[in-house]
Amino acid sequence: TKDIEVPPEWFRRGAKLVLDLGKVKDLAEVSVNGQSVGGILWKPPFEADVTGALKPGTNRLEIKITNLWPNRIIGDQQPDATKKYTFLDYRPFTKDSPLLESGLLGPVRVSVVTMK
Fold it and tell me: Which pTM value belongs to this model?
């Protein structure tokens, strides 16, 4: 969650405001000022039209990312894990397995696109 400042000049006639999350591993959900935008973003480009949700001035941006299931399995294998969240008969991952790249890797930016 982050508050961002949006200048009034971005809201000119014919302008479209696009939130680009950059690189995401693997699912993202976005809300702007409490309003869900873009649905579930699950493939590139990880972009959402935020024109109707942003306003001039301060805006609250919230991005939720879903971690990869293998990372949860690996986390449950760690010796200091106090609670296990997974139960599998087959264990393709061990406590020593490397974590897979996951999260909001960005860069995150808002662009103004002029519509013709």
Answer: 0.86
CB atoms within 10 A of CB 5: 8
66: phi then psi, degrees, rounded to nearest 5: -100, 125
Alpha carbon distance 72, 99 (integer Å) = 9
Distance (Å, whole) CA 112 – CA 66: 27
Label residues 96-115 b or e (16+ Cβ within 10 Å = b).
eeeeeebebeeebebeeeee
What is the rounded CA–CA span in Å between residue 18 and residue 11? 12
Residue pLDDT, tens place only, 7-60: 999 999 999 999 999 999 999 999 999 999 999 999 999 999 999 999 999 999
Closest CA relative to residue 30, chosen from 43, 18, 39, 42: 39
